[in-house]
Amino acid sequence: MNQPPWSTRGVVSRKWVGIAWRWAPLLFFVLLVGVAWIGWQWGGKPAPSVWVGRQAPPMTATAWQSAGQSAAVWRSEDMLGKVWVLHAWASWCAACRQDHDWLMWTLHRESDRPTGLSIIGLDYKDPQGALWLQRAGNPYDVVVTDPTGAMGLQWGLTALPETFVIDASGTIRHHQSGPLTQEIWQNTLLPLIHTLMHSRTGAFTQ
After folding, report:
1. Which partner from 5, 25, 53, 76 sits 20 to 30 angstroms from 123, CA to CA?
2. What are residue 9's DSSP bridge partners?
């Protein structure tokens, strides 16, 4: 008598489970090799940001220069013709506090900050940001508030802090995800900023 077709399903399932377990270590090893190869290809550097080369999202927001100052409206379109840096942060972000100490130390040194460079702080979903800067110090020329996170969504923020370098045409030329360091500032951001500021239009040409 022929067996019903469903009688072999358990056997087949156990067979495939056994095959999967047998090949799992090899597949895991191949995955590790692949990740290591990608890391070697990039030389340990993060993959290029998808934002580089795109126009900076338009921004119109409440802004202030120091805690207690009357709020004003800040528009990113007013930055056209200038090279500027957008630094997204929040007082509740531990890595941002690390960045803050570095920014306070570095950006107040004339040798580390090109003349005419504007540093805009984007205070992301942070109702205590102004008070925190009042106590800790404000390294920014202007602080733009983003209480709902709408601007952060436009800029594709994923993990604070994040830093963007924007040229005079409004194009994003660099995106740094994670805390800044003296090495990143000196070896990556400053050379790019100097190139943009000394070009005829402020736009980087290759």
Report:
1. 53
2. none
Cα 36 from chain centroid?
23
- Output the CA angle 183-196-198, nearest 5 degrees: 110
Neighbours of 100 (CB within 10 A): 24
Confidence band, pLDDT 50/70/90 cuts, at residue 94: very high
Q: For the residues 145-171, what does the mean pLDDT come to?
A: 94
Please count the residues of the chain: 206
**Three-state SS annotation for 121-181:** EEEECCCCHHHHHHHHCCCCCEEEEECCCHHHHHCCCCCCCEEEEECCCCEEEEEEECCCC
Cα–Cα distances (Å) from 56 to 96, 172, 192, in that order, read 22, 6, 17
In the chain, the largest separation of any two C-alpha atoms, in whole Å, equals 92
Query: What gap in Å lies between CA 89 and CA 123, rounded to an integer?
Result: 5
